[in-house]
Design a protein that fits this description.
Blueprint lengths: L1 H32 L1
């Protein structure tokens, strides 16, 4: 149970990082198109 919770926490952190990367990527794209 503890290991499962740990992996879930890591996955959540990774998902948050991916979301941030996508957000920045879209921001750069829109800035480039302007």
């Amino acid at each position: 149970m503890k290991t499962k919770q740990k992996t879930f926490r890591v996955n959540r952190r990774y998902a948050e990082r991916q979301f941030a990367v996508e957000k920045v990527g879209k921001l750069i794209e829109t800035r480039g198109f302007e």
